[in-house]
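As a representative case, we now present a protein record of this kind.
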Amino acid sequence: MVAVLVAYLPAVSGTFLWDDDAHVTRPELRSLGGLWRIWTDFGATQQYYPLLHTAFWVEHGLWGNAAAGYHLVNILLHGLSAVLLLRILRRLEIPGAAFAAALFALHPVHVESVAWISEQKNTLSLVFYLAAAGAYLRFDEGRRRKDYVQASGLFALGLLTKTVVATLPAALLVVFWWKRGRIAGRRDVAPLVPWFGIGAAAGLVTAWIERAQLGAEGADFALSPVQRILLAGRVVWFYLGKLAWPANLTFVYPRWTVDASSGRSFLWPAATLAAFGLLWALRRRSRAPLAAGLFFVGSLFPVLGFVNVYPFVFSFVADHFVYLPSLGVLVGLAAGSAILVARSSPRVQALAPAAAALLLLTLAALTYRQSQFYRDAPALYAATLEGNADCYLCLNNLGTFAAHRPGGMEEAARYYRDAVRIKPDSPEAQNNLASALAETGRLQESVPHFERAVRSAPNYVVARVNFGGVLYRLGRVPEAKAQFEAALRVMPDYAPARQNLSVIERKEAEGRLPGPP
């Protein structure tokens, strides 16, 4: 815990980032009635993770909008997961348990999950995941009903925090196969059937919300079945590479083009199949490597590309996606290292603790350095652009920061131009560029960008209202009125659209509508 606190010390002074304001409890949800809405209204929060948002609700009651409190909770939850992992590995008698827990605690690939407030869904859900796993292992040994009830309750709490916890029952079956060499239907599978059921239901709800509420559909997600298989193969090796050599970690990675016409694209899934074929062949000597591989890929399954998740619009990979799955690789590496050292010469055994300490210190230093990038949003976006110059999200958000500075609108327009150059079909970037141009008096120049914004996202009410305002100033009143009416068809209670439409209707009645400039 001390090591985790020291390694993540820069994160404590960090501010709110990208979508943190969608997770830290909004004013309309801060009452007891708001807490009720968190649990009963699917649209009250960005994602339906009611226990996560209850935690945020409690935290806001304790320290309001002070970011340090949220960061400290994330860091402590991460440290607690490392402790729980250590206890589970010792219960399973896995060699190198302390080394594995330390690798997890200090690996820099986890900085995104720990230093970004929004990812409390990762740190909190893993605590429930590991606590449920520990309780179920006790049940498996003693078959006591209270252990099963406790494990099931913790599993349900985990699902209400993040649905990646739904992979736990499959992970437990992998553990039992590793321990006993077989899976018994009545002993091993039957008690987990209810877990599979509620996990599948939670996953379907999350998938529906990703599509219907967050917009995980459309051209950016139009991948064929073959493309999704090719993507999955590459994703697996990408994360293995970052876990083995955590260099060039970045907040938003470049978004790959999945080319089914290229023979090279098929090398990734072919290599994955070959690797599992090798692990299968080695199972008679040791089932552990195959079990570690199955845990890793199985826990990654929700983000391999077979299911649409909204972040795919920016990149198909993200460090926070590998937070839970990393356990399979890190535990496997630690256990394998411990076994090799135990079978080595006395000289190697004497040097092993120093080598392990040096590795952990290096990882801690990298984590400390990576945490510094999360001190504020402009610093994070600037650091991201160094590794990914085509991060249109970063350029768009830097433009927004510039736009809020006195006299910064011209600088903002330059950022927005770069963003739409990289991704012309981004409605947010097109709307922002158009608004910046209108703000600086270039009304006619803004019109094509507004048109692209509403063409890319017909239900984007903010862009329609902004566009309507510009059309009104240009004297194109019927077109302005049409934009406000279109916004109200999508969101009938959207006040800016209703107010602007009322102004036009009143001036129509009075005969005071403006003409073309």
Q: What stands out?
A: Residues 2-24+65-377 form one domain. The mean pLDDT is 95.
